[in-house]
Amino acid sequence: MSQAVGFGVASPMKLSTSASRHMSVKFNGLSRSFVCVSSQSESQDIEKSRSLSFSPLDNKTNAVRSSQSFLCNPVEKRGAVGDRIYAAGTVAYDTFSGTAAESQSNTAEEKIGVLLLNLGGPDTLNDVQPFLYNLFADPDIIRLPRLFRFLQRPLAQLISTLRAPKSKEGYASIGGGSPLRKITDEQAESLKLALEEKEVPVNVYVGMRYWYPFTEEAVEQIKKDKITKLVVLPLYPQFSISTTGSSVRVLQNMFREDPYLSRMPVSIIKSWYQREGYIQSMADLIEKELETFTNPDEVMIFFSAHGVPVSYVTDAGDPYKDQMEECIHLIMQELKRRGVANDHTLAYQVNCKTVFSYYSLEIHI
Ligand SMILES: C=CC1=C(C)c2cc3[nH]c(cc4nc(cc5[nH]c(cc1n2)c(C)c5CCC(=O)O)C(CCC(=O)O)=C4C)c(C)c3C=C
Ligand SMILES: [Fe+2]
């Protein structure tokens, strides 16, 4: 059976992990129940002439080691569920300058840092327009042809001003600001404790791309703390140019220019949507949510993903769409293994539809 069901969940309250909720939708006069699962991912710099990209030096671990050119191979190999990306002590490090042999990793006192990357969000309604300005001023979000690059900031000013009222409405409806900072801080604390329990003491930092605490602030703190090795963990399960790609470009620029940072061994975890723990926890969430329905078997599972411009995928090879669909396949496979055989569907949310052509609805019923 194949149907097109049209509703998007364009709430700004997307969490790095994911969230689920119920809804009932009338379709063709029939009322259907849904479990709505929001996943989050990202995109990457589309501009082919630019040198941002990743070289998956270690496909098995899926950790990206930085290289001088920082080239990204968008079509990465993916491990099966259950593959270990890395275990404590086996992280593959390199430096942004490519001089790992001389790096400070040989110092007697090793200090490991973990840098969590996220998008950031406005803390108050007054922050909405400047937050949107930062977002639209990012060439990984709005990509202008080289000749029109000088228009990036004026355009960001214009779009952020036009978009702010609608955006404010959304943030007002979830309490007057983004919950992302609080959630990310809690994740940082939990990660620190979990690693301490495994006798891997680390400092955990949070670096946001478009709002406080900015990635630049986190990097300054990393320097002050004299960290000797760094693991970069983007809190986006799937890789995209506009999310992990953009944040890593910021890091690349900072690290390249700084004598201390350019020699620091760094390991970047490019994506983790296929990790066993993630798939299991998504399946746990869905199972738990299904149990709250009177007739769980009749419920459709609705996956809602962020949209990315079509050109990111078709021209720049953004792996986001493929990774998202593989991720959902793995979650459904896990649910089936547990005896849950519900129908499911996937839709991509559309942000600022007038600016880009986005992947929109994709229905698999
Ligand atoms: C216009 C271009 C945008 C692209 C491309 C885009 C990709 C993208 N975004 C996320 C995750 C999040 N985006 C969030 C907010 C947000 N994103 C855009 C625009 C694009 N996103 C806007 C204009 C906004 C602001 C809210 C709004 O006005 O709709 C958030 C929420 C942050 C928060 O406040 O908590 C997240 C999360 C992904 C994963 C992605 C590409 C895959
Ligand atoms: Fe977004």
From TrEMBL:
It is found in: Plastid, Chloroplast. Its main location: plastid. One of its GO terms (molecular function) is ferrochelatase activity. It comes from the Eukaryota. Pathway: Porphyrin-containing compound metabolism; protoheme biosynthesis; protoheme from protoporphyrin-IX: step 1/1. Its EC number is 4.98.1.1. It catalyses: heme b + 2 H(+) = protoporphyrin IX + Fe(2+). It is an enzyme of class 4 (lyase). Keywords: Chloroplast, Heme biosynthesis, Iron, Lyase, Plastid, Porphyrin biosynthesis. It holds the Pfam family Ferrochelatase. GO terms for biological process: heme biosynthetic process. GO terms for cellular component: chloroplast; mitochondrion. Gene3D superfamilies: 3.40.50.1400. Belongs to the ferrochelatase family. Catalyzes the ferrous insertion into protoporphyrin IX. This is Ferrochelatase. The lineage of its organism: Eukaryota, Viridiplantae, Streptophyta, Embryophyta, Tracheophyta.
